[in-house]
Each structure stands twice: as structure tokens, then as C-alpha cells.
Design brief:
- Helices cover 28% and strands 44% of the residues.
- It contains two helices and eight strands.
- Strands 1-8-6-4-2 form a five-stranded mixed β-sheet, covered by helices on one side. Strands 3-5-7 form a three-stranded parallel β-sheet, with no helix packed on it.
- The chain starts with a helix and ends with a strand.
- About 9% of the residues have low confidence.
Length: 138
């Protein structure tokens, strides 16, 4: 009984030490946060395609690929193999690196990078897929 209580107390002490050490660690000079959005059903997929199409209309995109860069030191690319694909790379800030690769038909994907020094690469294979990634770097 005492041995079990001692093991439990030691485990709690180790967990507390590990947990609090994360709070006292020095702040990172740079980092990023990525949010990936993938539809779960056909209705959500249609809504995402509509949103990406509205982006394309607003930015007067002609064709199925759009790279928009506002800032400096950014690198972007889009590779498409198939028909009816829509790929978007939008970068605002500096030092971003991003690509969208699509293999198949009727795929839609948007990669949106803001801040600085984010690195994102999306690949879609198959037909009728949709998705988006939003990255924020500091």
C-alpha cells in the first residue's frame, strides 16, 4: 500500500515537473501555426469550392492556377495534371515557401500564407477533392 502511494506521488511529481518546465522555457524567436481544412462530405466540399471560386473571381484569376504574392523573398509553385483543377497559392509577408500539386480531375485547393517564413506544400490525388491550408508565421 505504501509502495503504491509512493509510486503515485513520484509519478505526479515527475508529471508536474515536466508540465511546468514548458512554461518557463524561453520564447522561440520564430514559429508558425497551420490550420488545415478538409471537407467531411459533399455539401462541405461544394461550399469550399464555391469559396475558392469566389476568391478567384475577386482576384480576376483566368485559368485554374493562381499565385499571388505580396511581400518579398517568397517562393511558390503550382503543378497540375488533369482537368478542371483549381490551385491557389496566396502569400503575404516575407520568406514564404509554398506549393500546390494536383493529380486528377476537378480538385480545388488553396494555400494561404501570412506573416513570415512559413513552409507549406499540399498534394491532391484523385478526383473531386477540396481543401485549404492557412499558415501564420512570426
Amino acid at each position: 500500500m505504501i509502495r503504491t502511494a509512493l509510486k503515485t506521488a513520484m509519478a505526479a511529481l515527475v508529471a508536474t515537473t515536466i508540465g511546468t518546465s514548458a512554461f518557463i522555457a524561453p520564447a522561440q524567436a520564430g514559429g508558425s501555426l497551420s490550420v488545415h481544412v478538409q471537407p467531411r462530405n459533399e455539401q462541405e466540399s461544394r461550399a469550399m469550392r464555391a469559396g475558392l471560386s469566389l476568391y478567384s473571381i475577386y482576384n480576376q484569376v483566368k485559368g485554374g492556377a493562381s499565385i499571388r504574392q505580396i511581400g518579398s523573398g517568397n517562393a511558390a509553385g503550382i503543378a497540375q495534371d488533369g482537368r478542371g483543377n483549381q490551385g491557389i497559392v496566396h502569400q503575404e509577408g516575407r520568406g514564404h515557401n509554398g506549393t500546390v500539386t494536383q493529380n486528377g480531375n476537378n480538385n480545388s485547393y488553396g494555400l494561404f500564407q501570412f506573416g513570415r517564413n512559413t513552409n507549406g506544400h499540399a498534394t491532391q490525388t484523385g478526383n473531386g477533392n477540396a481543401g485549404a491550408t492557412f499558415q501564420f508565421g512570426w
